[in-house]
Amino acid sequence: MTDQISRSGSVPFLAVEDLKVHFPTPDGVVKAVDGVTFTLERGQTLGIVGESGSGKSVSSSAILGLHRGTSAQVSGRILLEGTDLLSLDEETMRRHRGRNVAMIFQDPLSSMHPYYTVGNQIQEAYRVHHPEASKKVARQRTIDILGRVGIPQPDRRVDDYPHQFSGGMRQRAMIAMGLVNDPGLLIADEPTTALDVTVQAQILDLLQDLQREFDSAIIMITHDLGVVAEMADDVLVMYAGKGVEHGPTKELLTHPEMPYTWGLLSSVPDVTADTSAKLIPIPGSPPSLLNPPSGCSFHPRCAFTEKVGSNLCRTEVPLLLPSARNPEHLKRCHLANPDEIYEAEILPEIAPDLVEDK
């Protein structure tokens, strides 16, 4: 059964339907992404969160067709303005990649070629999709976009090499490369991980400004729930290759209904707490995607399986279903009253001040 997350009857800008990305190995099939579904409109931001290995980057790489030519088995549908990207031949997909959908990779230093100037690499990305443009036009376009992303003296820095840029400037250059063709969809894979908090805030403000200017749809892949709270309109929580919770950002962060999401929120340090306060980590480790647990994939680490009873968590995979309090909020969990449990047992641990205010 395909989990349906679309909230509108109209055709969305991006619709990912029952996406599966499996990798055959000598030991078996690794189900890196196993039936993910979501939609995204222009001008909106979707935050995808989860531990390392949950399938965040693999699913986004599938949108760009980066698994082509590998052993990966990709199925489902990825509809961009109604066109199924998975059905396109490689040449047609190349015309989409960079022009209609682009990606900001996690490490700009390893993503940019050290032997070519930053300007040459951005110009190449532009001329691939604008073969009629002269070198002079492409260079001016590159200078303009470098200026737009906040590179000082872009007419001079356009001839610098990646190692001559600071970490924050390299990330801005990667954003410029992603935006040089005005793509409708921009995928940002941990774009602020290696940056200090001041530069991180500048990069996030820049992405929001450019989104308003270009009306781009953004997929923000991150471990930082603070980034999600600031930028995302909707949040998709992934675990073991599946979407386990999805909904509007404020609703999901204030009334989470999946124990895994509770664990992510509990793991965030409280800056107002006593310095001796301990973090509340999620016990155990993420499961093997080669041999995932039966039933709910989170049940070996979940402290609430006994509240379900009948051994249901260990034997039956829960569907992604609407919450009782909000039909736009979906959760993959067998718990019948997660909101009550969260307020009674989790919230006092992670936000005692909120409980006292009530």
From TrEMBL:
One of its GO terms (cellular component) is plasma membrane. Keywords: ATP-binding, Cell membrane, Membrane, Nucleotide-binding, Transport. The keyword Transit peptide does not apply. It is found in: Cell membrane. It comes from the Bacteria. GO terms for molecular function: ATP binding; ATP hydrolysis activity. The keyword Ligase does not apply. GO terms for biological process: peptide transport. It is a peripheral membrane protein. Its main location: membrane. Residues 14-265 form the ABC transporter domain. Belongs to the ABC transporter superfamily. NCBIfam families: oligo_HPY. PANTHER family: DIPEPTIDE TRANSPORT ATP-BINDING PROTEIN DPPD, OLIGOPEPTIDE TRANSPORT ATP-BINDING PROTEIN APPD. This is ABC transporter ATP-binding protein.
